[in-house]
Write a structure and sequence with these properties.
This protein is of the alpha+beta class and 158 residues long. The protein has 3 helices and 7 strands. The site of zinc ion (ZN) has 7 residues, from loops.
């Protein structure tokens, strides 16, 4: 059973509402891919016809793990498309399958260049961050105390 597939001819005027979850295998990510789906994908979508288009609205959510491009450690990233919206032209008055579109739209929400400090599940600093040659670090060459205000403020948050 595929929740994102329906027959245009049977689509009620008020649209079709689907909600539930699909296993992580929904994303069909290859075993060796650095991106892994870590949770079932939850969805709540409405499909409504508007003339020659199907308007899709709702929410999509799935948890992934990615590999940080800097420290190479894995970290989690939640894709939470709370106000998902899409418009799909109707090509034929037959069945319509929006599975690929949903899958791709979620995967497209993942960062192209993952950095663990940008992860939105476990907030952390990348352990590889700052392991640069100090002479290459522009902050070291700045006047002493130039950015102290910021760092003092950060220290107080700890
Ligand atoms: Zn990292």
């Amino acid at each position: 059973m595929n929740p994102f597939q329906f027959d245009i001819r049977n689509l009620p005027v008020e649209g079709k509402h689907v909600a539930g979850s699909l296993p992580a295998s929904f994303f069909q990510l290859p075993e060796k891919d650095s991106v892994k789906a870590e949770s079932p994908m939850t969805y709540e979508l409405d499909f409504v016809r508007d003339g020659k288009d199907i308007i899709v609205t709702g929410s999509l959510k799935a948890l992934f793990s990615l590999e940080c491009g800097r420290c190479l450690e894995r970290f989690q990233q939640l894709v939470d498309l709370a106000e998902y919206e899409s418009e799909v032209p109707i090509e034929k008055e037959t069945t319509m399958d929006l599975t690929d579109m949903v899958r791709e739209d979620i995967l497209l929400a993942l960062p192209n260049f993952p950095r663990c400090e940008d992860g939105n599940v476990d907030l952390r600093d990348c352990p590889a961050e700052g392991h640069f040659d100090p002479t290459d670090d522009p902050e070291v060459n700045e006047e002493p105390g130039a950015d102290r205000g910021v760092w003092n403020a950060l220290d107080q948050l700890k």
